[in-house]
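We emphasize that the prediction below concerns an isolated chain of 246 residues; any contacts that depend on oligomerization or on bound cofactors are therefore not represented. The input was used exactly as deposited, without trimming of termini.
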Amino acid sequence: MRNLPTKIIIRHLPPKLTEEHFKEMCSPIPPYDYFRFCSTDPSLGGKNFCRAYINFCDPESVFAFRERFSDYVFVDSEGNEANAIVEYAVFQGTPNTPPLSKVDRRQGTIDEDSTYQKFLANLNTSPSEPTTGEESSAGKQVAKTPWEATLEALEKREAAASQQVETALTRFLNMRLERSKRNAGDDFKGMSRRGMRPSRNSRKARQRQAAATSSIPLGNSDATPQCADSSQKSADTNSISVGEHD
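Result of the prediction step, given as a token string:
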């Protein structure tokens, strides 16, 4: 029974009920060591109620009080009625609760703490005045806008990229790229020249064809064989005549 809660709360009391009227309606109240009556808050409007806290000296008084006044109809001076609700209080502590036996030994010793003393010393000392260079740099930093800071960061990044050291591998790759571009340009020029001018072999073939055409006579094509036959006959006649003289 000692570990059972002894503090209760009586809710849903009429709004115009007073502490004296409540005690008169609840008398005789079992022995208690703590009592608190809370009146209504006018700012909450008409739907507000009073409440009371009681801490009894023994748990048995809690059960006896609850049997009497749970769902009991209380009436205030203006005739307002309300059914009371009796239940255990969530917080069982009271101002009459004895203090804890353990006491913090560091209580009241903050003035003697070395860290706190250093804090006070730093707080009392005046801040050091900045030099002229620091003041100018601080003024520049304050005058900069976010857009200017972004531009400055981009410029620094571009400058760092342009100052990169060229290695042997990058040099070789750049040379090969330039050589390939140069060869591609030469091939394009050669192709354009060949398309504009005729080749040397084609010119020679046309010259030979023109010479052969000019050597053929313009007369009948059968004249040449006849001339050949007549020359052959004259040659045979000459040979016969030479034989007869012999």
